[in-house]
Write a structure and sequence with these properties.
Number of helices: 3
Oligomer: single chain
Shape: globular
Order of helices and strands: EHHEEH
Strand content: 5-15%
Radius of gyration: 14 Å
Number of strands: 3
Strand order of the largest sheet: 1-3-2
Length: about 80
């Protein structure tokens, strides 16, 4: 059964697929506070697309994947 996911949100399966991880690893990210639920139910959580995209970009930049956004640190003026 397909559950309704409002625009701007991702289901847990969609978020895990985008991040390239399992649902179990997704739960670990939630437990560590790296990702927060924005809706759904306890059993069928939903996540904000922006939060998942930001987490994906951070993970890609740390792993050195090609095409990952380059983060530059700010220098004190």
């Amino acid at each position: 059964m397909t559950r309704y996911v409002p625009p701007g949100r991702l289901s847990a399966d969609q978020a895990a697929t985008l991040l390239g991880i399992t649902r179990g690893n997704l739960r670990i990210l939630i437990h560590r506070g790296q990702l927060t639920r924005t809706g759904g139910t306890e059993r069928h959580p939903q996540f904000d697309i922006e939060d998942v995209s930001t987490l994906y970009a951070d993970r890609a930049a740390r792993s050195g994947q090609p095409g990952a956004p380059v983060r530059r640190s700010r220098q004190a003026a």
